[in-house]
Every structure is written in C-alpha cells, then in structure tokens.
Amino acid sequence: MKNSACTFFIFTQMVMLAVAAPKVHGQARPYMGYVYPAGGQQGTTFAVKIGGQSIDAVTGVIVTGTGVSAKVTGCFKRIGPQEITLLRDQLRELKPAKKPGAAVEPAKAADPATDELIARIEKRIAEYSNRPASIALAGLVFLDVTIAPDATPGKRELRLVVPGGVSNPLAFHVGQLPETARKPMLTAEFQVLGKEQFALRKRPDEEAEVRVTPPCTLNGQIASGEINRYRFSARKGHHLVISVLARQLIPFIADAVPGWFQPVLALYDDKGKEIAYQDAFRFKPDPVILFEVPKDGEYVAAISDAIHRGREDFVYRITLGESPFITSIFPLGGHVGETHAVKAQGWNLNGAALVLPAKAAGPGVQSVAAVLKGVVSNAVPFALDTLPEIAELEPNNTEAGAQKVTLPIIVNGRINKKGDWDIFEFQGKCGDTIVAESIARRLDSPIDSVIKITSANGALLAFNDDHEDPASGVNTHHADSYATVKLPADGAYRVHIGDTVRSGGEEYGYRLRISQARPDFALRVAPSSVTLRVKAGGFVSVYVERKDGFAGPIKVTLKNPPAGITCVPVTISGTQNVARLTLKTDLTETKAPLDLVVEGATQVPGQPVNQHEAVPCEDRMQAFLWRHLVPALDLKAVVYDPANKPTPTRVIPPASPQDLAEAKTKAASSTGKFTKNQVTGRLRQIESLYEEGLLTVAFASKRVAECMVLE
Q1: Tell me: the pLDDT tens digits for 341-378?
Q2: Inter-CA distances, 544 with 10, 553, 631, Å
Q3: Which of 347, 475, 442, 378 is nearest to 173 (CA)?
C-alpha cells in the first residue's frame, strides 16, 4: 500500500488530540457533506442544495474571492416520523379531501399564502427520509447563489456559518459556459441487504438521458447503480474535451471505499457503440476524454461510478466542448522573480495565451492556465523556488556523458522516452550531507521517479523510489523520490533519475533538486475553522513537516491576531510532530467570522529567524483508516456564547378556551396514556415546526391545547 507509516502517524496523533477535544455546548462542528450543484455560470442566479450535519440554523454563507453571493432560502434539520405525521395532518386541513358524490363547491379565490405554505410542507415531506443512507447528510440547506458577470472563473471555497461555528469548506466553481443541472437528489435511503432495490433512486424516464448543446457544463449526482447520459450533436473534426470534476469537488467520502467517488466516463456513437472510455486521467481518479470527432452525428456521453455505488454526495461537473485543456507544461517551475518561458501541451491551445504566475509571486506552488477567446482552461501547478536553476541537456543517460552541475541547483528535465535515465555529476566534499529530491508527481507529472546517488566508480550510496510528503494533501501515491547521503570523501558524485516502470515521454517532466541539506519545516493547522466559547476558548492542532533533517524546536503562535483573540505560544520540540495551540478570547460574540493566521518560528544560532505560516487544513479520512490533511484557503474563528439563546422568530399564542374545551373532550374519549416526557417532546416538535413556518396558528394552538390537557 502506497500510504506509509507517516500518514498513519498523523492519523494516530489526530486520534489522541480528538479524544480530548472540547465540544461547543454539546454541539458538533457544522459539517457539509456536499454542495449541489458545485458551481455555476458567470452572470446567473441558481438554486443550490447542501447536505450535512448541524447546519439547521445557518446565518451566513462565505464564498472566497469576489463576485459570488448567496442567500439562505431554507434550512431543514432532520426530523422524525412524529413530525411528519404533524405535517401531514396540517396538509389535510389545508387541502380537505373531496368526498365521493359531494356537491361541487363554488370556486374560492386563490390564497397565495396558503398555496405557498402547502408547497413548503410538501417539499419538507418529500425531502424526508426515515432511514437515510448517511445521517451525516440528512440536514439540508437551500441557497440562492448569484455569480456576477465579471466574477473570476475557477475554483472557490464555500462555507456555512451558524451561531456556533463555521463549517468545513467545499469546492465551488465559477464557470464560463452555459450550465445544465439535473434535479437534486432526495436523501438516499438506507439499503437493506437483499432489498437494495427498494432504496434505489426512482428517476423519471425523461431524466435518464438529457439533450445538451456544447460547449456546456453538466451538473449531476450519481445514485446507487445509476448511469447519467447526455446526448449532443458534433461535427467531423471537432476536438472535444470531456473532463470531469468529482474527486476534486469532494476529495474523500467517509464511508465509500476506496474513499471517494470514482467516476467512469464513456462515449457512444449514434448506434450505441462505445467509441471512447476513461476511468481516470493518468494518475488522477477524475477521467478526461480527448476525442477528435470522426463524422457528423449524434453522440452520448455517460457517467457512472466504477463499482456502481452512489449517494447524494457523489457530485460531478462535466465540461463538454472544444475548450482549451492543458495536458502538460514544461518546465514545471522556475526561479522566483523571473519571467518564465513555458511551453504547454494539450487540446485546443492554438492561439491560446498562457497566464503565468506574477513576477511578485513568492516561493511555492503557483498555477498556469491557458486562455482562448476568453475561455480559461484547467489550471496546472507551477513551482517557484529561490535556488539557481538550469535545464537538462541531452544526451546525459550514461555515466560518461553525465551532465555536470554546480550545487545547489534545480534541474528542469524530462524522462523523454521509455527506459531513459538522466545522470548529473557534481563535486562534493567529505562530510557534506547531500539531498537529491524530485518534485514531479506533486506537480501533476505522470513520472513515478526513482533516484540513485553513486560515487564516481559507480558504487551505490543512496536509493529511493517513493517518499511520502504529508503536506501533499489529497495525494494517495507519493511517487516523488528523496535520497540523502553523507559524502565519504572529496570528489565526483552522480545523481541518476528515471521512471520506476521505465515509462517516458514529452509529459514526463520533473524538477530535480540537488543541494546540501536545507533544514526547514512546514506547518499545517486543523481544522480550518474553530469555535471559541466565551470564557473557555478553543484550540487547533498544529502539525509539523520536517525537511532535510530539521530537528529544532518551533515556537508556534498567532500572527497579528484580531483584537480580543489571544493564545499562549507553544513550543514544539524536536521530537514532536504535532501540538495543540490553545486560543482564548475576551469577546462576548463576533458579528462575522474572524480570520486567524498561525505562524511558527525557529532560531538557528548565527542565522535570521526562520518563520512560516501554517496552511489551514481539514482532517479527512480515506477508506476507514488513512487520514489526510486537505488544504483550505483560510482559518476562520467565531466566538460563541451558549447562554445566548436565539429569540424564536414565531411564538405560538396561548390556547383559547375553545381549543382547551375541544382538547378535553377529545382526551376524555381517548384510552392512551402519555408520560410527562412524551408530552414535553411533543410540545418541542410542535414549537419547532411552527417556528420553521410549517404550521398555521390555528393548527399549532389546537395541538398545544391537546398537550396541555394531557399533562
């Protein structure tokens, strides 16, 4: 298994910290399991449905960037059979049934308020599931999202805000093409062994196949055993790109082995013959079909899950059309502050302009995209560093022809054909600790690198195939290599890099760092939102990735915290990889979530203080065991006072004498017995549904009166 002990170490540390994790007034952190659709077109307003947990009192929506706004139109907390019975009783009063043979009553004037209430009750009942497939998805929130015409296209993050905290972020995309969205799924039913057919989605026949007009973006959800089909017309010679976002929307699904939605994509001609099929794009689970249309005609694109699973959080976005698409770039990075000459390979790139990182961009992973006639392509990673850089020079695949380099250096190269090795020779001194590291798979290169360090006479000094980088987020195959050696003598040494399975080609680019050890560290902080309880505070977990043998202590604190937020700095010793940072506040509340920045610093004698900001992350589980720190854009905090109970928006008026009299008469003829707890629970149900606006005053008053006479 490619996930190594390092990831398992993160898992065990998370468990130990989670055991002592405080709760906010007994409430769980608000959680979103899916957002559907997970994006929309510039200049449109559309409905969005969100499933999750502890999201029944949403007060705000946060979308990163500018140009996207959202309004909450409804929150459905999970309810039970008794509440559904109340709603059906209310519906019967609003829609009295006609008795057979009864005289036709004169038509009544339309009552918009009653019609609206009926519609809301019917929607509430329709969305109800007594045994949901996942309770963690059973809470529902409905939004109206508006995207400005000039909103920057691409990936954003969406969060929900409730009085007790801020949810996890989920991907939300701003698109440029016309969009089609299938009707949102109802909450999937729990499947009973041997009776799975009763829990399958009952989709109308007209939704099995949808006709679309490219270019477009297609939004859908896959139910258990379901296939979604899209029919379109295409002309001979068109270079179609059919690309899927699925795992990139929701990286890990907690109880869906292997831990994510694995979409498969197929293309059929007008006779139903399969003419293209993909279940991945290189090493990524989201498939892409690049297809040159052989003749004019009708075609059908179909998407499903590889092992026929499905649920409302199996969300996808498909882009279909002659859109620009980058398959690879070279080089994969460059030196900070310089202008970079980058060559892109892909589809529909003729005449496209590349958008490169700004000159002011600092070290780290940036991105490159192509723009053709105003349409922006997929973004691919591009690394910036401060070390000197050179290009690989062929031929260098023999020891005698090894390319000579001076350390420290980053080599931008390619394994340009099958079986190719690239060899680099440097002069080293006895006692130097030398590191050779490939940065390739982390930059979307398909190379599965292997590195060897040898002496001038060919003796093997170090070797590495896969080296895990805990900071690489959703990566599940750590295919980059890292080798280190302490040189035994002065002289010439060689670094060899190749592909583990001897593959190669134009897209097999790499960045090879050869340098003396550069001890350093990186930080991750999880979760990416924290609730600070009044007079109690809260905490986050800070994880350390140690680089090139760094074993020094790191002092962690808040950087420029907002007024009213403090923390006691914590020092992570050289033997620790995780610590808890406790946050305190003297605020009584926050009107809006605050942004926090966690920073770590270390001091090496004789050198400047080395400081790094922690990357906010979400702790996500893959396939029941392996855990990943998935990066988020920011760290949010709210201050919460559990003593501040929200004022009810609707209060049931006292029961009238008539209601009480009718309730007593009804109770006298009843043989049922009710405990005080049962009556109290019934009152809570009535009050909750009334406050949600689903019961009329008259109906609620009568039901409260019935409860009063039973006490």
Answers
A1: 999 999 999 999 999 999 999 999 999 999 999 999 99
A2: 10, 11, 14
A3: 378
Kindly state the tokens that stand for 195: 């009776």
* Residue where the block lists tokens 């929200």: 646
pLDDT by residue (tens digit) across 190-236?
989 888 888 888 887 778 899 999 999 999 999 999 999 999 999 99
Please give the CATH number for the structural domain made up of 527-640.
2.60.40
609-618: pLDDT as tens digits = 899 999 999 9
Between strands 364-372 and 375-376, the pairing is antiparallel
Among candidate residues 492, 502, 499, the one with its CA nearest the CA of residue 461 = 492
Strand, coil or helix: 173: strand
Task: Report how far residue 241's alpha carbon sits from residue 291's, in angstroms, rounded to the nearest whole number.
Answer: 7
Q: Spell out the CATH class of 389-517.
A: mainly beta
Q: Do residues 228 and 249 touch, judged by C-beta distance below 8 A?
A: no
**Strand pairing of 39-41 and 170-175?**
parallel
- Could you tell me which of 539, 531, 570 has the C-alpha nearest to residue 554? 570
Q: Which two tokens stand for residue 595?
A: 């942004």
Two domains, one topology: 5-94+114-190+198-318 and 389-517: yes
CATH architecture of 5-94+114-190+198-318: Sandwich (2.60)
User: CA-CA distance, 711 to 705, in Å (whole number)?
Assistant: 10
Nearest-CA neighbor of 481 among 520, 514, 519? 514
Domain boundaries, the chain: 5-94+114-190+198-318, 325-384, 389-517, 527-640, 657-710
- Cite the beta strand spans of 418-503 per DSSP E: 421-428, 433-439, 449-455, 460-464, 482-486, 491-499
